[in-house]
Amino acid sequence: MKQLKQLYRMYEENDSAMKVALAADLRRSKLESAILEIEFLKNDVKNIMIHLKEWAKPEKPSKSIVNAMDDVVIYNDPYGVVLVMGAWNYPLQLTLSPVAGAIAAGNCVIIKPSEISVACTKLMAELIPKYLDEECYHVVCGGIPETTLLLKERFDYIFYTGSTSVGKIVRAASNEYLTPVTLELGGKSPVYIDSSVNMTIAAKRILWGKCINAGQTCIAPDYMLCTKEVENAFVAKAKEVLYEWYGDNWKASPDLCRIVSDRHFQRLTAFLSNSGKVAVGGQSDAAERYVSPTILVDVKPTDPVMQEEIFGPILPIVNIENAYDAIKFITGREKPLAFYIFTNKKRDRNLLLQKVSSGGVSCNETIMHIAVETLPFGGVGHSGMGAYHGIYSFNTFTHKKSCLIKNFNLIGEKVSSIRYPPYSDRKMNFVVMATKKRRGVSCTYLPYLLIFFLGIVVAFGFKAVAKVAGFDDKLPQ
Q1: Model pTM score
Q2: Residue 158: strand pairing partners
Q3: Which residues contact 164 (CB under 8 A, 6 or more apart)?
């Protein structure tokens, strides 16, 4: 708790420095830095501190009749020394949020920020030793060589956020010592939209999810599935919305981030010329690593933009005819980290929810499910394994230690002695009867009931003895 308070103090006292670092790495606006990273981190730690005592206390699950006289307890043990590997696209949030969960669970942490987000990594390396216990929390800076050396060490848990390709490397390295891992990866998160929506609202929510952080978000809408009719309506509305947000000169807007590196910029601009047709946007500037919000139409499933996660402000639209086509298209690919369903048709929504497997879902919204602290955030299949946020962060870094506590009660020993040799059919029949599962039977309060009835038996027994002894008339009636 002391370390969590120090972590919160670090956020409070260095709010401005964090915004400056985010602007240096991504040209992030103050508002986006606040709501997407800094305030998120503050509220994350606050929530943990409010609930930590409740989360950490030993759990007492239900028990069967066999253990009616015993204590059955689950203790929350820290794993030990944890490696947390952060990502560059949200360099503070994606590094420090899992660190808070690891601290809450009682672990020591080696923190490895991304070498791509230079300013934020430098800031964390400077601040963390000033606020947190240096014996328990270390920041390791560096690139691929340092990361490779770290993965050769033996950790008790590894938490990685980043690409699927590197996630496979981390998973392979963890196998050396059978180290458990959480992998927060990515993938192509689809949007399904039909004609039943309010197109003005839908366009704003989809474009906001695509444009924040210049599309460099693991749960950004990656591509859109809709009919040609819906596509035309969406494109027309998108032009209005983007000009409303960014004016006539989008590049001059202070509210649009930049691509993080030249390599990432070149990969994105290649999509503009080799996939579909530009319907909105399409501008770029290598000197500033600027890529405008862009919508591509006439996109084929085989186009390069559909072969990998985009991680930029480019939204390709693939035409389908209905929800069934969308299900077939999505399930024919790797499971996405997020799925966005835009429809007012409850039947179609439920069908899509039932048939499509994804890490998480937002209906008639994008991104915002990540901000619900009571929901676990994580992927499935190639989009990751494990989850965190809120209590799920605490549980991720906690080993649930099972414990059965018996005493030397003679009655309990007499009953349980049925397990000892010599064996017989009578003993076997008793064991089968005693251990047989029965619906709706709970033994949580059975010991108290036994004591209650034992008290009644003792009281009546005492009265009977008193009557035989001839002084029952002296007892209170």
Answers
A1: 0.89
A2: 83, 181
A3: 185, 186, 187, 309, 382, 383
Helix H or strand E segment including 158: strand 157-161
Residue with tokens 């069967």: 64
Q: How many CB atoms lie within 10 A of CB 114?
A: 24
Q: Which amino acid is at 206?
A: I
Cβ-Cβ contacts under 8 Å for 287 (sequence gap 6 or more):
none
Sequence-ordered strand ranges (E) for 336-448: 338-342, 360-363, 384-385, 398-405
* Active site (catalytic) residues: 184, 218
Per-residue pLDDT tens over the stretch 72-124: 999 999 999 999 999 999 999 999 999 999 999 999 999 999 999 999 999 99
Task: Give, to the nearest 10 degrees, the angle between helix 199-211 and helix 228-246.
Answer: 60
User: What is the Cβ-side half-sphere exposure of residue 371, based on CA atoms within 13 angstroms?
Assistant: 11
The alpha-helical segments, DSSP class H, found in 57-198 are 93-104, 118-131, 144-152, 164-174
Beta bridge partners of 8: none
Per the CB < 8 A criterion, the answer to whether 351 and 325 are in contact is no
Distance CA 182, CA 170 (A): 10
Amino acid code (one letter) for 333: R
Nearest partner of 97 among 208, 218, 184, 21, judged by Cα: 184
The neighbouring-strand residues paired with 74 are 59, 402
Length reported for the chain:
477
pLDDT, tens digit (0-9, with 9 covering 90-100), for 261-276: 999 999 999 999 899 9
Asked whether the bond before 316 is cis by omega within 30 degrees of 0, the reply is no
Which tokens hold the place of 98? 């899992």
* CB-CB contact of 194 with 345 (8 Å): yes
* Residue listed under structure tokens 């035309």: 232
